[in-house]
Amino acid sequence: MAILYNDRKEVIPMINSANLEYDLTSAIVRVIRKEMPTVGFTGGHGEPSAEEGANYINQLLKKEYLIENVDLTADISTLKNIKTIIVNGPKSAYTDLEQYSLDQYLMNGGNLLFLLDGVSVDNNLQGSKSSHGLFELLKSYGLILKPDLVVDAASGIAPFSSGYNTFYTPYPFWPKINKEGFNPENPLTKDLEAALFPWVSTIETVNQEGGIIIDLINTSPKSYIVENNFDLSPQQTYQFNSASLNKQRISAAVEGNIISFYKEKNKPKGLKSSSSFIGNTTEGKIILVGDADFVNDGILGSNQGNMILFLNMVDYLSQNSDLFSIRSKGFTDRPLMELTESQKNTLRYLNIFGPPTLVAGIGLVYRFIRRRNKYELPIS
Predict the structure, then answer these.
(1) What's the whole-model pTM score?
(2) Strand 119-121 vs strand 111-115: parallel, antiparallel, or unpaired?
(3) Do the beta carbons of residue 158 and residue 171 sit within 8 Å?
(4) Residue 190 CA to chain centroid, in angstroms?
(5) Cβ distance 201 to 150 under 8 Å?
(6) Using N-to-C axis directions, what is the helix angle for 304-317 and 55-62, rounded to 10°?
(7) Residues 67, 339: Cα–Cα separation, whole Å
(8) Residues in CB range of 371: below 8 A, 6 or more apart
(9) I want to staple 261 with a disulfide (CB 3.0 to 4.6 A). Which of 140, 252, 289, 322 is the partner?
């Protein structure tokens, strides 16, 4: 199928009835718009690359956006054509100059999507506070990323290796967000049904003058926080009987009047920008997610809800919201009902004792019927 408009053409190479409305609408949007918007990725701090870890999100975005690698040490004016800058899972600290560039890009009406770990988890399941150095910058905008991890009874299945064997088990450090965890009043999240967040950190908020903070995603009410001495082994006893269980915020947005982090601070040394300093903005937007792993290739490829959420976030920030409502139509998630411990025990004992009891009962009834027929006198 091909969509033609003036001298432009968009081709849908394969028709899939489940996604036809989305494919058709996105092709129409691409063919009629005057130019493709641009999104940028920061680099140089251990972020996943298109070749390793971020190939999937790059392929998804290339259908709707031009992609640029952002140099935060260059003149800020070079960023003016970028709709949204994505800061995806840095491992090392941003310099003062780089943070200033992000800040002034935002003050000039740009948008920022932060996908950040509060706690870094290595391959040996050892956790430590992340070293990206963006905690104070985010706090100045009203978003406090905490160096903690959420443990949630509503969890996804995670793979683990033991010697040469791999086993899969429910892993409460990987919260699975169901429909109730998404903000039903925000167009970005209102039609979402599920997403998985490995090793996600919580977000607290601070009211800023004129700023509007929007809750986007919360874990289930059966969640608690681990702040120190991270024991990330899947084979442990979790504290789901604790009185401290509560839903936890893991993603939020800021809009409205946003004040510059550098309004009361000295400007960084080595500043090359010829642009004037701007102290606030009413046009820029920020989204923060307390997890970068939710968009890596291994997670995104097997969790369609994560893909939809990520694309919605980029579209929301880039003012490209035509596909919000239809993107998630072909995706449904119907998790099993959560059971209390007593309900689980009841079902467990029914499974153990129910079948033999049923077989024994049938045997007794059958024996009774045979004995009755044996001794019943014939009627002459």
Answers:
(1) 0.82
(2) unpaired
(3) yes
(4) 14
(5) yes
(6) 50
(7) 45
(8) none
(9) 140
Residue 104 has pLDDT above 60, yes or no: yes
Own/partner pairs, 331-338, CB within 8 angstroms, 24+ separation: 331/193, 331/304, 331/305, 332/193, 333/178, 333/179, 333/193, 333/194, 333/305, 335/154, 335/176, 335/178, 335/194, 338/153, 338/154, 338/222
Q: Which helix (H) or strand (E) holds 138?
A: helix 135-140
What is 35-327's CATH superfamily? Class I glutamine amidotransferase (GATase) domain (3.40.50.880)
Coil, strand or helix at 22: helix
Find the largest Cα–Cα distance for the chain. Answer: 118
Tokens linked to 41: 């990725």
Name the burial class of residue 322, with classes exposed (0-12), middle (13-18) and buried (19+) by CB atoms within 10 angstroms of its CB. Answer: middle
How confident is the model over 287-329, as pLDDT tens digits?
A: 999 999 999 999 988 898 999 999 999 999 987 666 666 666 5
Instruction: Provide the 3-class DSSP secondary structure of residue 142.
Output: coil
Tokens matching residue 134: 């963006």
Q: In the chain, what are the domain boundaries?
A: 35-327, 350-380
